[in-house]
Structure formats: C-alpha cells, structure tokens
Amino acid sequence: MAINWQGVFPALTTKFTVEEELDLPAFITNLQAQLDAGVDGIILGGSLGEASTLSNEEKNTLVQTAVEYVDGQVPVVLNIAEGATREAVRIAKEAVGLGVSGLMLLPPMRYKADERETCTYFKAIATATDLPIMLYNNPIDYKIEVTLAMFDELIALPTIQAVKESTRDVSNVTRLRNRFGDRVRILCGVDTLAMEELVMGADGWVAGLVCAFPRETVAVYKLVKAGRIEEARAIYRWFLPLLELDIHPKLVQYIKLAEVGAGIGTEHVRAPRLPLVGTERDRVLAIINEGLANRPELPQFS
C-alpha cells in the first residue's frame, strides 16, 4: 500500500495485561477508535509502543494483527530502532513479508554515531528494502541530529521520503521546505508543536495523545489544512495541557492513563516501567479529568 506521508499517524501504545502479556483485544479496541476518527496511518513499535521491551516475536504479532485488522484502510508503518546495523537491515527485509507499508527509522541506538556513521546506517537499511521510509529526527532524546547536509546525501535514495520532525525547532519546517521543497514530507513529531508546524507547512502529525483523543487530533489537523485556523486553535488551546503529557520521560504511563480515562485503553506497562502512584498519579489524573470534563464539541469537517 502506497504512503503519501500526509495526515495523522498515531504512534500506538502496546497494550499489556496485568501479567505483562500482549493484550490484543485492548489493542484492537484502540485501533478501531483510531480508524473511526479518520487517521491516515498507524505506527507500531515506537518509543511510545515500549519497543525496547518487546521481543521480535511480539513485534511481529502486533504487526500481523494490525495489518489483518486494518485490511488496507490505512498504511501500517513499522518502527526500527536497533543498535546493530545488520539487525536493522534484517528487520527491514522481513517487514515486507509481514505486510507493512513503510518504515520509520531511528538513528543507531545506544551509540552516538557521527554524521558519516549515521548516514551509512540509514543507507544500509534504505537500500535493503523497497519500502518507503520516514527518518525520525529527534536530537533531544536520541542525541543524534539529521542535519540538512545529511538529508542532502540521504534523499538521493528514493526510499527515504519523509521525516518525523522532532528537533523542537519550529523553524526547521521552513528550513526543510526551503531546501528540499516537497521532496521530503515533513510530519511533526512533538505534540505540543503540532499546530504551529502544520501552520508552517508540515504535511502531517505523528501523534501521541491521539492514542487517547483521536477525534480531536484529527480535527486539529483537518481544520488547519482547510484554513479554519480559529476553529483549530480553540481545540488546540483546550488540548495543550493534555499534549504536554507527551513531552515527559513517563509519556508512556501518562498517555496510557489518558487512554483509560477516554475508555480506549489500559494503563498496564512492562517493567522496568511501573504504573503511576501517589501525588504524580493524582496530578496527571487531574489534567486528564479536566480535559475530559471540558472536551469540546467538534465542528463538522471533511
């Protein structure tokens, strides 16, 4: 299935039982909520999906479940975040057989590669598959920045088509657009900057709080792209305290708790993560409950 790298792409959480096993019924419940809201694709196995705690078999199970359930309605994108280049290449080659439509690539994990090493890593994966690729540029969390000069080199490969823009510098959208035009699709990867980047010309939004609030996320995107800025801004102002849950080291626990409040998830996580307790849990719940109590009525949009 082709990907045009536009619209809302939820970075889905991985649902677990209290025993830390995959909870596929809960996963499907949330997946259906995303489809009902009109998302444009889904991303599996990202940081929000607790990928570092999943076995390869579990990742494959999630992908196969999603591909079968989605049945071509939207593209399914698999995240690759490996420490070894050959392991990343192996996963990329196997991904086609799993039925995924594209890949999202993090830079080498657990090693701060320099520019030459990072480009070589991305190229090795991009030449091992025909699947379209979105690079994840997040120097804040992963300590490696994909610079404009690196993009110059990388987009010589036709499979590299998009970037999840998470530098937290809104002006980088304009830099990318000025340098590459539409050759590189730009998807905002930071919830608290999404409307700003969409207004500045980003093509899409790789979203986190969409896992709990899919309709509102899609509404902001659709309204901005329709030029209905004031209506989008009203939703976004309501949304911002919730979106700020996405920029915390415990974003997984925070967003899963929001999924519970919205009735489309569970808060079970896999150790070493632990469920929230005490004053921290109370504080996050207060934000979620305030948002739910004042959830806006959404305008009509196509």
TrEMBL record:
UniProt cross-references to CDD domains, sorted A to Z: DHDPS-like
InterPro entries in UniProt: Aldolase_TIM (IPR013785), DapA-like (IPR002220)
Protein's recorded name: 4-hydroxy-tetrahydrodipicolinate synthase
Organism, scientific name: Spirosoma utsteinense
Gene3D superfamilies linked to this entry: Aldolase class I (3.20.20.70)
Top-level lineage group: Bacteria
Family listed: Belongs to the DapA family.
Record key words, sorted: Lyase
SMART domains per the UniProt record, alphabetical: DHDPS
